[in-house]
Amino acid sequence: MGRQGRNGSRHFTADNIKSYPVQEETTLLPFLLQTLKDKNRTEIKALLGYRHVAIKGKAVTQFDTPLMPGDTVEVNFGRSFYKFNNPQVKVLYEDEWLLVIEKASGLLSVANATSKEKNAFHIMQDYVKHDNPKAELYVCHRLDQYTSGILMFAKNQDLQMELRENWDFYIKERRYICVTERVPEVPEDEIRSYLEENDRMQVHSTDNDVKGKLAITHYRVMQSRGRYALVDVEIMTGRKNQIRVHMAEMGCPIAGDMKYGAETNPGRRLMLHNYRFSFVHPVSGELMRFSLSVPQLFRKLTSNEPVR
């Protein structure tokens, strides 16, 4: 496994990559068999199949790729020659057990009835399969489609089940920043209610503690300007649409949240961002902390100071 970079992502050093100059005309498989004498035919085919071999910086998988004198064959013994680049997803951390990403607003966490491939899970499943076509990925939690922020996936099902069944033990902090329409009358408070979902897929608070699930939200107003407030939110429970419902029922819907009563959409998105996520690593026991910056538009809408 590679070393951990300061930004939390996994990196593989140049020591993992070896370069082999081509001296005579041949094809790739015979060249690798002759050059990598400590590898058998099956191992070399695996290196090719998993994109660990490159020519001129580009991964190749065909065993009969022609080689000419002057060519250089590179073999990455750490991971595949694959540069992940997706404008809607950023990898924050990866090890052999977990994958943590930043998801953009507008991207589904998982597939729904109308979108099977344009979701974070499908994108990241393709990502892990570049290293190993047999790799699997499992969803640990979700963010609403138009909420941006931090998502975690497990790389095996047992680990997923361990996290889900003991979520409150492992998860130490989940904080969000949002822009509300109207400024909360009480600058800091805790909201508790039982939430249930109706037939129209809308969540609301109920007095029925049998049908509803307890939801606890702590909020603090950070700054405000005009009709908008920047609000820091920590959730003690993870119910569907929890923050959106609690803010709306307080009379301060999240800007852009037309489903729950917002009147404006200044950012052409739901102004809700999961910026901090902390958990105990279920294998190593290490406390893992991830933080993202507040979107510039959130601060611009709610501050009297110029945003640089």
Low-confidence stretches: 1-14
- Could you spell the SSE succession in H and E letters? EEEEHHEEEEEEHEEHHEEEEEHEEH
| Average pLDDT metric | 90
What is the tally of helical segments? 7
Strand content: 25-35%
Q: What is the topology?
A:
Layout: E1 3-4, E2 10-11, E3 17-21, E4 26-27, H1 28-35, H2 41-49, E5 53-55, E6 58-59, E7 66-67, E8 72-76, E9 89-94, E10 98-103, H3 120-131, E11 138-139, E12 148-154, H4 157-165, H5 167-170, E13 171-181, E14 188-197, E15 203-206, E16 213-225, E17 228-235, H6 242-249, E18 272-280, E19 287-291, H7 296-302
Parallel strand pairs: 12-18
Antiparallel strand pairs: 1-2, 3-8, 4-7, 5-6, 5-8, 9-10, 10-12, 11-12, 13-17, 13-18, 14-15, 14-16, 16-17, 18-19
Descriptive notes:
The protein is an alpha+beta fold. Helices cover 19% and strands 34% of the residues. Strands 9, 10, 11, 12, 13, 14, 15, 16, 17, 18 and 19 form an eleven-stranded mixed β-sheet that branches. Strand 14 and strand 15 form a beta hairpin.
